[in-house]
Amino acid sequence: MKRTATLISPEEIALQREYCTRILEMNQPLPEKPLAFVDTYGCQQNEADSERLRGYLDEMGYGFTQDENAAAVIIINTCAVREHAELRVLGNVGALTHTKRKNPNQIICLCGCMMQEAHMAEKIKQSFRHVDLVFGPHALWRFPEFLWRIHTRRGRIFETTDDPGSIAEGIPVVRQNGVKAWVSVMYGCNNFCTYCVVPFVRGRERSRAPGVILDEIRELAAAGYKEITLLGQNVNSYGKDLEENVDFAWLLERANEVEGEFLLRFMTSHPKDASQGLFETMARCEKVAPQLHLPVQAGNDRVLKAMNRGYTSAGYLDLVSRLRALIPNIVLTSDIIVGFPGETTEEFEDTLEILKRVEFDALFTFIYSPRQGTPAAKMDDPASKEEKAANFQRLIDLQNEISARKHAAYVGKTVRCLIDGTSEDPRNNLSARTAGNRLVHVSGDPSLVGSYRDVTITHANTWALFGELRSTEPMPAET
Ligand code: 5AD
Ligand code: SF4
Q1: Is 172 part of a structural domain of the chain?
Q2: Is 196 in the pocket of ligand 1 (CB under 6 A)?
């Protein structure tokens, strides 16, 4: 198939970087470096987008702060997947009227998926008049131009036109973490699960060219990154829109060939597109972590069909058993929605059944949230809030028991972990991750962050493992 996505031309990106230079020239004479606060909600794709916004801001001469009172520019990168996240954003944006009153020159920007929803952009326009700039994910690459226009004209800007989506390369990036990095391999989603707003706000699936992805991975590996996560709403459809005859398994194999000591992860995989070829590649490639996030969403076939998921519970279980035959120690996680419109408690029991059959290591659990414009929002939803809440609690209780049991099995074992950060807890001042991405708390020298170490697991609970670093010193000779 021919490449269908529009590639933003290098000239257009160069023009955006010229706007960065103009703003830099404005900022440089200031007595103190102006600060920007970038607040991110939602998924890793949003985190990756925020890293690009920080890249632009850095080029414009901004420093960074977490304090909205100290910020000359505030960007809230929003999520539209559930109502809860939207309400949090609206609450926080409302509170910014106070910071703006104290600092009338403050520039407040909203971007991300929520802004691509027409009714939300309208709400901001009418009721949040302290917001200066609103743009959706499709217009992110034009942020410098928007900010320049705000600086020079002080009018409000709303850039939220609907778009099938494009690909913009060459945007600078400031990464949040020096140990782990995100690399987007594709954008958008074509699946139209009936509950999900993502295909409406992030446009159609479009893959980045393999060459640019592999160059980025090479750069990250050379810079010493220890964990690289390939991102896409549905990575398993990577390449379908490219001229080259490539797929995700092929890309993973090429990424595995990149030199360096790092682990590769990826998310999200849609079960309907998870192929035997992908599993075989995962099993073969030593840098690919023994871990898979494979959202099942529900266990009942009627519900799965109404969700437009494209597989049955038997099909899902078959995938899991084929995967485990190839990678017995695979760490499996999933997403579950409770209370999809029309789901009865009896049908929900099938979700519990899937949990018992698969025994996921951990779950991300959600109560269904109606999203305006999606087919599910128009479906009858007779179950009461109380019934959904009770089912949700049963789901959590069962999963907690499974996670605790799975974690307990690590106790006494020594596992290789990436020390990935520090924490405030004086007893366990370091955090680490197993190859399967389970969280481990340990104590040790903060200089160890960014290195792989053997950790002996001493105890565990539902959410995490606790361990002791094995000494890297040679053992004393026996006498
Ligand atoms: N309500 C509840 N959960 C949702 N998700 C997506 N849309 C909704 C919705 N409308 C969940 C799915 C998805 C995860 C990222 O968010 O489980 O896999
Ligand atoms: Fe939403 Fe389904 Fe696409 Fe995931 S695969 S982003 S749940 S539509």
Answers
A1: no
A2: yes
Residue type, 3: R
The 10s digit of each residue's pLDDT in 445-461 is 999 999 999 999 999 99
What counts of helices (H) and strands (E) characterise the chain? 13, 21
Q: How far does the centroid of ligand 1 lie from the alpha carbon of residue 47, in Å?
A: 18
Q: State the distance from the centre of ligand 2 to the C-alpha of 69, rounded, in angstroms.
A: 36
**What pTM, to 2 d.p., does this model score?**
0.95
Q: Which atom of ligand 1 has the smallest separation from the CA of 81?
A: 7
pLDDT at 163: 87
Run of H or E including 160:
none
Tell me whether residue 474 is in a domain.
no
Same domain for 269 and 161:
no
pLDDT value at position 471? 77
How far is residue 192 from each of residues 12, 130, 240, 258, measured CA to CA in Å? 31, 34, 17, 34
The mean pLDDT value of the chain amounts to 95
Task: Give the number of the atom of ligand 2 that is nearest the alpha carbon of residue 202.
Answer: 6
Q: Work out the angle between the directed axes of helices 313-326 and 276-284 (0-180°, nearest 10).
A: 20
Residue 475 falls inside a structural domain: no
Give residue-wise pLDDT tens across range 188-224: 999 999 999 999 999 999 999 999 999 999 999 999 9
Closest ligand to Cα 235: 2
Rounded to the nearest 5 degrees, what angle is found at the Cα of 189, between the Cα atoms of 186 and 194?
160
